[in-house]
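Summary of Year 1 activities. Much of the first year was spent building the evaluation harness for sequence design. The harness presents a backbone, in tokenized form, and records the residue chosen at every position. We chose the following record to illustrate the format because it has been used consistently in internal testing since the harness was completed.
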């Protein structure tokens, strides 16, 4: 969830990774710039959006002699109904879109994207294969695991089941926004599988209720709960824990033994794109080592690029940089999620009000 996992870190430290690290050797003539060719992409808001505008886009513009314009997605969530309408009309307003995985299911089912393969994206050879979709690479890896206060929790949690430990009564928080992840986490904890969501799922949720201080509704609220040490244990996204760690709060993020949830954003070319070749070049470029390294430093987003080298500071906060952790990444069935989320929401809301 892009509006729940972004974090801010020291601007000076990030800007130290200057755009010169990405600069392409090609020298573009003033004539090429004068042509005024424009390339349009959907992009993120907040910290990640600024990273693209300030650090990622300029080297690509120089290399290809184009001007890249961005359409900011509020909350970093694409307006999929509008996207569908413009694609179906043969006039997509952008060539490239970055989506959440549920949005990707919608796009795939509605034939909004063109397939991409290794001949289109040469950087595929450097990516972990589990993060390559039929329509583009999955970038900006973020994780859902356990954050805990190292001063108040003496024995580091190793299992999701630790959230149910009676000694944490009133000291635990879980999330409301991406409730489908909570439901899958509960199932994983007690059955070893994420699905199906059933009466048993909600039975175990009810058993967790005495430990819950709250269901946080935003990532910022999750940070505040950790910052004020109102909770000692929580199911959170890695970048939210990282933000608090950087403030000096004794928080650590871990991947439970049953599995960790790792989500990402497919970057895809829209059907009817004005310049599909340039769109493929852009995606290939964003996949490459230098942009991926910058995005890790900027927003604590992991990378599927095996060549990215992380600092120790980043490794601790992203954790999916460790191949052994990646092996524990839970495989989620997003088609099933999309087909059932409305009914799950009805049951989730009823459980909250009980």
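For this record, the design step produced the sequence shown next.
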């Amino acid at each position: 969830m892009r509006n729940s996992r972004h974090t801010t870190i020291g601007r000076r430290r990030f800007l130290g990774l200057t755009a010169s690290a990405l600069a392409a050797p090609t020298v573009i003539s003033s004539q090429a710039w004068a042509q005024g060719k424009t390339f349009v992409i959907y992009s993120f808001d907040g910290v990640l959006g600024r990273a693209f505008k300030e650090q990622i886009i300029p080297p690509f513009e120089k290399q290809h002699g184009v001007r890249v314009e961005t359409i900011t997605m509020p909350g970093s969530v694409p307006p999929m109904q509008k996207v569908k309408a413009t694609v179906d009309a043969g006039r997509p307003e952008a060539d490239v879109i970055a989506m959440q995985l549920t949005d990707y299911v919608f796009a795939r089912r509605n034939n909004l994207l063109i397939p991409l393969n290794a001949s289109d994206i040469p950087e595929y050879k450097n990516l972990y294969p589990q993060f390559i979709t039929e329509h583009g690479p999955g970038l900006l890896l973020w994780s859902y695991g356990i954050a805990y206060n190292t001063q108040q929790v003496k024995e580091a949690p190793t299992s999701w089941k630790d959230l149910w430990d009676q000694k944490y009564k009133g000291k635990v928080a879980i999330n409301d926004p991406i409730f489908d992840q909570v439901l899958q986490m509960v199932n994983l904890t007690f059955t070893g599988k994420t699905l199906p969501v059933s009466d048993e799922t909600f039975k175990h949720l009810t058993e967790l209720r005495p430990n819950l201080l709250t269901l946080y509704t935003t990532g910022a609220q999750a940070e505040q709960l950790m910052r004020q040490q109102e909770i000692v244990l929580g199911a959170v996204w890695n970048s939210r824990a990282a933000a608090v760690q950087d403030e000096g709060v004794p928080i650590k993020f871990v991947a439970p033994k049953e599995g960790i949830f790792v989500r990402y954003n497919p970057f895809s070319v829209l059907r009817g794109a004005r310049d599909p070749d340039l769109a493929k070049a852009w995606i290939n470029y964003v996949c490459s080592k230098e942009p991926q390294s910058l995005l890790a430093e900027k927003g604590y987003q992991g990378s599927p690029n095996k060549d990215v080298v992380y600092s120790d500071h980043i490794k601790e906060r992203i954790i999916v940089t460790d191949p052994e952790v990646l092996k524990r990444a839970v495989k989620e069935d997003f088609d099933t999620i999309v087909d059932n989320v409305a009914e799950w929401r009805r049951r989730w809301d009823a459980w909250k009000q009980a």
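Residues 1-34 have pLDDT under 50 and may be disordered. Quantitative recovery figures across the full test set are reported in Table 2.
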